[in-house]
Amino acid sequence: MEFNDERSEVSAGADGVVPTATRGARSLDDCDGQSGRAVLSSDPIAVDLSTAEQAKPGPLLRLVQRQEVAFAAVGGFNTAVGIGLTVVWLAVLGDNVPPSVAVAAAYAVSIVIAFVLHRTLVFRVRGHLLRDFLRFVAVNSGGLLLNMALLELAVSVWHFPDKPAAVVVMGLVAIASYFGHRHISFRRRPQVEADHAVG
């Protein structure tokens, strides 16, 4: 057994027990992924998600390295899916049904796909499935209303050209949606708060 000022470790013996005790390490997520040893962290905000609710980075985040880029990639894919679904619904429903029904049907399907992709590929959270979905729909609907309001304001009140205004507004709403989903849809309480609530 070996002691120092920062950590104490007990190496695996014949009995196969491998305890690792480290001051400052609050969970198994504080462990080094290669050695399995706990990594010291004096910052109480360093681990802000509980181990039960935070998943390790998936293939998309490992590829692009940044959550914002992953969010944009999933958003672009979902936009394409929404367009495709709208075209399919228009063809399936035919001329006897208003086009708005096809749009609504496409939205109903695409929002579920978007939720699953954002939850599993971008924000990587676990638990609270129904709560996350309801918040996701609320943020998404808020983004749609914000898009409509800002575009109307830009074109009707400020007299900007409609097409450039639509592009700028959609970009701004996409940025707002990222923060909305990050801090509302998939928000998790900091581990420190959770510990205090238990104690």
UniProtKB/TrEMBL annotation:
<keyword id="KW-0472">Membrane</keyword>
<feature type="transmembrane region" description="Helical">
    <location>
        <begin position="104"/>
        <end position="121"/>
    </location>
</feature>
<feature type="region of interest" description="Disordered">
    <location>
        <begin position="1"/>
        <end position="35"/>
    </location>
</feature>
<feature type="domain" description="GtrA/DPMS transmembrane">
    <location>
        <begin position="71"/>
        <end position="186"/>
    </location>
</feature>
<protein>
    <submittedName>
        <fullName>GtrA family protein</fullName>
    </submittedName>
</protein>
<feature type="transmembrane region" description="Helical">
    <location>
        <begin position="133"/>
        <end position="158"/>
    </location>
</feature>
<dbReference type="InterPro" id="IPR007267">
    <property type="entry name" value="GtrA_DPMS_TM"/>
</dbReference>
<dbReference type="InterPro" id="IPR051401">
    <property type="entry name" value="GtrA_CellWall_Glycosyl"/>
</dbReference>
<dbReference type="Pfam" id="PF04138">
    <property type="entry name" value="GtrA_DPMS_TM"/>
</dbReference>
<feature type="transmembrane region" description="Helical">
    <location>
        <begin position="164"/>
        <end position="181"/>
    </location>
</feature>
<feature type="transmembrane region" description="Helical">
    <location>
        <begin position="69"/>
        <end position="92"/>
    </location>
</feature>
<keyword id="KW-0812">Transmembrane</keyword>
<comment type="similarity">
    <text>Belongs to the GtrA family.</text>
</comment>
<keyword id="KW-1133">Transmembrane helix</keyword>
